[in-house]
Amino acid sequence: MSELLERLANLPLRENLRGVSPYGAPQLDVPIQLNVNENTHPMPEVVRQAITEEVHRVAGQLNRYPDREFVELRERLAAFLGHGVTPDQVWAANGSNEVLQQILQTFGGPGRSLLSFPPTYSMYPLLASGTNTAYIAGERGADFDLTAEAAARQVRESQPSIVFLCSPNNPTGTALGLDVVEAVYAAGEDAQTVVVVDEAYAEFRQTGTPSALELLPGRPRLIVSRTMSKAFALAGARLGYVAAAEEVTAALRLVRLPYHLSAVTQATANAALKHVDALLANVEDIKLQRDRIVNELTRLGLTPAASDSNFVFFGGLADPQRTWEALVSHGILVRDVGIPGHLRVTAGTEAETTAFLSALERHLGTGQG
Ligand SMILES: *Cc1c(COP(=O)(O)O)cnc(C)c1O
What is the pTM (predicted TM-score) of this model? Predict the structure, then answer.
């Protein structure tokens, strides 16, 4: 143990923080970063200009606290979502991780539980632990599928306070049918379970894959979570948001810190939302690269999962750790999510995708894949 870790262990830490490491994928300085599902396309110049001007404008007012209710931003987010969502039904924070934490602070806590279905977003158990909420790991079928029937049965059995459904799911990439969300919501009637659908990758979904936003009317325990970190290419700005019944957003206000969304964050997000079309223009190209990865990996004899997101989860590797290292040696960073035989890769620009595919093909050709 390093001397610092020893000193840390001597602190009067909360029990559930003992021996824990901070969450985060390795941040290696390699040229092609396809490991954390960022949008790798450059920010369009028109959006960059708009953000710069808007931030310059508010910089003159930074002596004042920002609009605590971020009214303009909620209006713009509601307009973007459509589906009849009103500004009073929208709530935002510094990344969807913060909104998810606020949901746990509001509806979880000691004596309460969170159910989700691994493999899924690895932050869920950590957010549960950080709020002293019991974490229940549900089960998926073979091929990591989750049927309405199996999900509803597990909700009835465990009576959780909260369920997180990730759709499209990270790391597998596949979206859930709305029948799963409906069944989980209905199964949570007795326990008054709050159902959160994390749609961080919604903008990349295949044509015909619906959003859980459609299910909001008449379902006051349903929350749909989105982020500007992926399709909007604004991971660095930290802006995540949810749509839910007005009483749910009123409840989330009970735990938010005052002025949690800085004036700079609000200005950045508002400026970006004035240019949604320019910002999302890259999404179609990313979807093309994603489909190209799925096709090429299949041709190479690997088994990619169907993807509604900007990344591809693929199996069929004899030694994923070795493949990961071989790709790093070519300057390409992908994600080892710890599932035997599998890796996850973000769809990059056309050039990045080409570099990934040819490095992988060469590596597999060595017979060490
Ligand atoms: C990337 C990601 C998020 C986004 O987190 P932010 O805090 O908004 O950057 C949320 N959920 C899932 C499943 C993700 O993969």
Answer: 0.95
